[in-house]
Amino acid sequence: MGTGMNPLKKIVILGGGTSGWIAASMLAAHFKRERCEIELIESDEISSVGVGESTIPPVVRLINRLGIDEAEFIRETQACYKLGIKFVDWRTKNQSYFHPYGALGKRIDAQDFYQCWLKATMAGEQYDLQDFSPCAVMAAQERFFPPMQAMNTPIGGASYAVHLDAKLVAAYLRRYAEARGVVRSEGNCVQVLRKDNGFIDALELSDGRSIHGDFFIDCSGFSAQLVEKALGVEFEDWSSYLPCDRAIVVKTQVAGSRMPYTTATARKSGWAWRIPLRNGTGHGYVYSSQFCTDAEAKNTLLKHLDAPRISEPRVIQFATGRRAELWKDNCLALGLSGGFIEPLESTAIHLIARGMDFFLRFFPDVECEPSLRREYNRRMHADYEEVRDFILLHYCTSERDDSEFWRWCKTLVLPESLRERIELFKGHGILREDNDELFRASSWQSVFEGMGIRPLKYSPHVDNLDYGRISKTLKLARSAIFNMVKTLPLHDTYLEEHYGAAAESPTALPLNSGD
Ligand SMILES: Cc1cc2nc3c(=O)[nH]c(=O)nc-3n(C[C@H](O)[C@H](O)[C@H](O)COP(=O)(O)OP(=O)(O)OC[C@H]3O[C@@H](n4cnc5c(N)ncnc54)[C@H](O)[C@@H]3O)c2cc1C
User: Fold this and answer.
1) CA distance 251 to 317
2) pTM reported for the whole predicted model
3) β-pair type (161-163, 80-82)
4) How far is CA 178 from each of CA 25, 184, 306, 421, rounded to the nearest angstrom?
5) Which of ligand 1's atoms lies nearest the C-alpha of 18?
6) Confidence band for 23, pLDDT divided at 50, 70 and 90
7) Residue 1 and which of 38, 83, 94, 285 are 20 to 30 A apart at CA?
8) What pairs with residue 161 in β-bridges?
9) Hey, which bits of 70-148 come out as E strands?
10) What kind and span of H or E run contains 499?
11) Domain membership flag for residue 21
């Protein structure tokens, strides 16, 4: 007797950037080749974006889930560890704060740590919130040690992500996926053939070949060949919230020690990143073309470099927003074809893996039931909105008014979702925290505190605890973290001891080249 199932026998991925190879790797790890054939088409003539060096901790979990040896991955992608992001000049000029990963304090007798800290602060005690984050303390001392090897110690709650070379990641995952049966075809997709019901039937390549499939994943980058050009799915523009629409990027030789964090410095018309890698340092200036020309942006970027350049500055244009449907018919939009939000919190690669996680959770047969698609779109839309709101929080709370760009930020009309979050927090320090949320309370608390926003009152539950107990626990916890971190290896030393000497940086370009 038939099961009524009509399984997908072939999935075609268009594009071999980070999203294409993440999709191929996750599918290859999930399916036996005989169950579902996977073919990836990419064109050597069309280059991938090739940026995307900073990640968040779930990316490390993805590597582990794929069964990839983390040490080998780190070595081959010239990666460094990342404990969080240092935000410089965001609230006001000459003021900085840290957004760490992992734990931010531990509960005190079942009471929420942040609330206990808040009560102590309101009582006049001088505790810096980040003194209770193992990652923030390690970052300040430029030290690193894997927390899973120190689980029952004061740094046990730490977490980490990596800084990596995006091109090397795509190459690594290509080897991984091909070894597990994914077929890569070189070719330029020039036409999309549709079935009577509108579903995609095949991709026609410039050499005349037609690649048929039951399901298609659009990883073709900003050009969105399938989801936009063929299926006409609308792009929801979020530039009224986030006006940055360009980045100028460059790589330099390594300068000094490699800090185990990304630096994001607010500048006149946007912000600049600094990302340490083993084979160089990635720099970029994200700006709004409404307030800054490309030439000005280039000047700003080059003026702040701290080491000789090893690549030419390159301008990348982008649109902020996401597709009205990320899954339409038998096509999924993944990576830049699905949407993009500026990389302030390094979330794009994570959203790719998340898109594949939900796809595997709601995996269809050839019918692609509308209810599955609706649920997928609902979940992914919630993720995109959460990222948008979290990024927006950095801008809308800034006190800067020293340029047209920052004055414009003061006129921002916030989405209702963020407005409500801020109100809720300002009252009693309450944060919504659903199971699936991307950023945990500690992330929101760190940014709120860094931007000078503290709740008016602490939660009344904390009064159940003896204040002496809170005060003593905070004192002990702070010194336990600090004293342990002092004994850990410097990040650079840890990298060298575990991964050997870094690859030589390429030769510096002459100063006048491309300037
Ligand atoms: C300025 C900037 C900074 C970023 N920083 C970060 C960061 O710090 N952290 C992070 O997680 N993410 C970051 N990202 C995002 C990250 O770069 C992307 O999410 C990631 O690279 C995925 O890109 P993609 O694979 O979707 O597209 P792309 O890299 O553009 O790849 C597109 C692929 O499609 C192929 N293709 C296109 N058209 C055709 C065709 N007609 N026929 C055949 N093949 C075709 C191309 O050959 C290419 O292989 C950043 C992005 C930008 C723009």
Assistant:
1) 18
2) 0.95
3) antiparallel
4) 8, 7, 39, 45
5) 25
6) very high
7) 38
8) 82
9) 80-82, 84-88, 96-100
10) helix 491-499
11) yes
CA-closest residue to ligand 1 atom 13: 52
CA distances from 420 to 60, 416, 427, 430, 439 (A): 32, 6, 11, 11, 16
Q: Whose CA is closest to atom 50 on ligand 1?
A: 52
Half-sphere exposure of 469 (CA within 13 A, CB side): 12
Q: For residue 223, tell me if it sits in a domain.
A: yes
Give the mean pLDDT of 286-300. Answer: 98
Q: 54: CA distance to ligand 1 center in Å?
A: 14
Q: Which of 46, 162, 226 to mutate to test the pocket of ligand 1 (most atoms within 8 A of CB)?
A: 46
Residue 349 CA, closest ligand 1 atom number: 11
CA of 147 to the centre of ligand 1 (A): 31
Ligand 1 atom closest to Cα of residue 21? 25
Residue listed under structure tokens 């599918």: 27
Asked if residue 186 belongs to a domain, the reply is: yes
Q: What is the average pLDDT score of the chain?
A: 94
Residue 344 CA, ligand 1 centroid: distance in Å: 16
Q: Is 77 in the pocket of ligand 1 (CB under 6 A)?
A: no
Which secondary-structure segment (H or E) carries 301?
A: helix 294-303
Helices (H) and strands (E) in the chain, counts: 14, 21
179, 187 Cβ separation under 8 angstroms = no
Does residue 310 lie within any of the structural domains?
no
Q: Judge contact between 48 and 226, C-beta under 8 A.
A: no
* Coil vs helix vs strand at 73: helix
Å from CA of 338 to ligand 1 middle: 11
Total number of domains in the chain = 1
- Ligand 1 center to residue 484 CA distance, Å? 40
Domain holding 229: CATH number?
A: 3.50.50.60
Tell me: pLDDT of 335 over 50: yes
> What is the 8-class DSSP label of residue 108?
B
Whether ligand 1 lies within 6 angstroms of the CB of 266 is answered as no
Instruction: Note down the domain range covering 178.
Output: 8-52+165-236+325-389
Residue 470 and residue 119 in contact, taking contact as beta carbons nearer than 8 Å: yes
